[in-house]
Design a protein that fits this description.
The protein contains 3 helices and no strands. The protein is mainly α and 90 residues long.
Length: 90
């Protein structure tokens, strides 16, 4: 879930940035500056939320790495064969 949230925030930030970039590229400097001012708070809020989600995602990944190290190793084929043999005898 956190991966999707970070990707969504990145997409939304990209939309804001590309709209401003496009306005500036077309020579509409005043429009670009107006868009920057108008989107400043919204963009800052999105950046904060994205950073929060990215931190949560990093914590989840670290937790998974730690928990995967603590799990006992799975039984290999040689360890499973005696059980299969014993069940055939029953």
């Amino acid at each position: 879930m956190a991966v999707h949230n970070v990707a969504d925030f990145d997409r939304r930030l990209g939309q804001i940035d590309s709209a401003i970039k496009e306005a500036a590229k077309r020579g509409k400097t005043n429009t670009a500056l107006s868009a920057i001012e108008g989107q400043r708070k919204a963009r800052a809020s999105l950046v904060d939320k994205r950073n929060h989600e990215a931190g949560a995602l990093a914590a989840l990944k670290a937790e998974r790495r730690i928990s995967s190290r603590q799990r006992p190793a799975k039984a290999g084929k040689s360890e499973r064969k005696p059980r299969a043999f014993a069940t055939r005898l029953s």
